[in-house]
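Hi, can you check this record?
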Amino acid sequence: QLGLDTYLWTENFCKDDLWIFDKVKEMDCEWLDIAIGNPDDMPIEGIKQKMAETGIKVVTTHTLDASSNLV
């Protein structure tokens, strides 16, 4: 299975980026890794709807700054 990361198109996934699901489907990929730049901007209901419409599965990634990174 092949997936793509939203960082290919945006640093902060928000409602204006829901079109990416259609692009990923068009590219014959099964997964989308959504980069969470700002959790308050996440369009949760829109993501659920696009997952149902396209069949794309989702994982998430979040960037940690120096103050929250345990490594």
In short: The mean pLDDT is 91. The helical segments are 19-26, 44-54. The longest helix spans residues 44-54. The chain is about 25% helix and 20% strand.
